[in-house]
Design goal:
Length: 459
């Protein structure tokens, strides 16, 4: 007797487009082992709704969810990323492993409800206390473990990216007092990676990658040492060219812009995620596209921080790839991130339907590209409904008024440009139904833990 679970969806969006009566078979480990379209014969559990692949979230700082909405009062003449960063440091200093676990569990459960089925956690809280006085190998492991346990609680697929952070600016300036809790020696960092890899091998829902905080926080020799120590095929994430001040400082120090320097001095390839890349030139975008690296865009955070507008049209024209992330989690909504990409381009051009080809669906193009490129930098087999991939499936509620009288090919446009997270009715991750009828199976317990943690942290 087969141990597979079979589900028949009213319709499903497969790599070659929409099909009706799609039966998806999932093995006990959570992988898709068979897909048959236009199948009215196979016995399967009927799911009324449209199945689409879950979205990978390529950039997350889980702890920042605790401060969403707390940095929205003007602090002086020039509120910017740099003034926001002070509030962020203050919140970071209050986070113990227990608090981090509770905050991340709430965040990840909410992500799943919104349609993110995997997340890349760019994790630099390696110690805690005002200047990182709680520092030891056990504490470093406990901070990472808090995130891995939270992902297990919420059921989301996780790529944990322990982050190397050593200097406060170019040229080796030591970390400030408030940055000390993020800092780590290179050897210590490589040991942490190795230890986390050993503990992650048991789970198909967990991957470990590398994060280099930024060129200003990681000296070239440290970057080289880390990259030399790793096997091929590891995913590597880095913040780059988010702020104009950072671009100018890099030019002064290296005589080159950050992306330009990185492409010339690091083995950037399809496994790299260049986060933000807001201030990229045309030549840099062409270089990124040629390297096959993925740009990790976080439009709601980039807008919230006043970073600037990423030149999305130019990236697509160069044949580049992008994923999306919710970063500071001011908002959790993959459709909102995609909407902002298109709307920024529309406002700049004063035209409509800028990021798509003639006659094609703009929403579908954005969803599909963010899924497939985003999946690549998770290091996990996700991002499409296909045999051999994890069974990460969103079910859109076709019975809701939003989708009334819509043909299949307008479902994704309607979802991306007019939907809300209410449009996502059910969510399966790794073959498990985590959300049914818009309720996450653990949401009551997770919310209670989150509220307790925030009262402790922010009182």
């Amino acid at each position: 007797m087969s141990m597979q679970s079979r589900y028949r969806f009213t319709c499903a969006w497969l790599p070659d487009g929409w099909h009706r009566n799609v039966v998806i078979s999932v093995d006990p480990g959570g992988d898709i082992v068979d897909i048959s379209a236009d199948d009215t014969v196979t016995t399967a559990r009927m799911i009324n709704g449209a199945a689409i692949p879950g979205m990978p979230n390529v950039h997350s700082h889980a702890f920042q969810r605790a401060m969403a909405g707390l940095a929205e009062q003007r602090s002086g003449q020039d509120d910017s990323f740099w003034t926001w960063r002070e509030t962020m440091y203050d919140v970071a200093s209050r986070i113990t492993p227990e608090c981090l676990n509770a905050v991340a569990a709430q965040l990840y459960a909410d992500m799943v409800k919104a349609g993110y089925t995997s997340v890349c956690e760019f994790h630099y809280l390696h110690s805690y206390g005002a200047s990182g006085e709680q520092r030891s190998r056990d504490v470093q492991l406990a901070m990472s473990q808090a995130l891995m346990d939270a992902a297990t609680t919420a059921g989301i697929g996780l790529t944990v990216l322990p982050t190397l952070y050593q200097t406060s600016d170019f040229g080796g300036a030591p970390p400030t007092e408030r940055q000390r809790q993020f800092s780590m020696e290179t050897r210590e960092y490589i040991d942490l990676l190795d230890e986390l890899r050993r503990s992650s091998q048991r789970s198909q829902q967990l991957e470990v990658g590398i994060a280099l905080h930024s060129l200003r926080a990681v000296p070239p020799e440290s970057m080289q040492m880390v990259l030399d120590s790793q096997r091929d095929g590891q995913v590597v994430h880095i913040h780059i060219a988010e702020q104009e001040r950072e671009v100018q400082a890099c030019q002064q120090h290296f005589g080159k812009r950050p992306i330009e320097w990185l492409l010339e001095n690091a083995p950037v390839d399809r496994n790299w995620c260049l986060v933000h890349a807001t201030h990229a030139t045309t030549a840099e975008l062409q270089g990124i596209a040629a390297s096959r690296a993925v740009v990790g865009l976080c439009p709601t955070t980039e807008a919230n921080l006043g970073d600037g507008i990423f030149p999305m049209e130019e990236l697509l024209a160069a044949g580049g790839a992008f994923g999306i992330g919710s970063d500071s989690h001011i908002l959790l909504s993959p459709i909102e991130e995609l909407r902002w990409l298109e709307y920024q381009a529309r406002l700049a051009r004063r035209q409509r339907n800028v990021l798509t080809q003639e006659g094609a669906s703009g929403g579908a193009l954005l969803w599909q590209r963010a899924c497939t490129a985003g999946a690549r930098v998770t290091g996990r087999a996700v991002g499409e409904l296909a045999v051999g991939k994890r069974a990460d499936v969103l079910v859109l509620d076709l019975g809701s008024p939003l989708f009334a009288a819509r043909s299949d090919h307008s479902i994704i446009d309607t979802f991306v440009f007019s939907g809300t997270s209410e449009s996502v009715r059910d969510v399966m991750v790794g073959g498990r139904w985590l959300v049914q009828d818009r309720r996450h199976f653990a949401e009551t317990a997770v919310a209670a833990g989150y509220k307790r943690a925030l009262q402790k942290m922010l009182k």
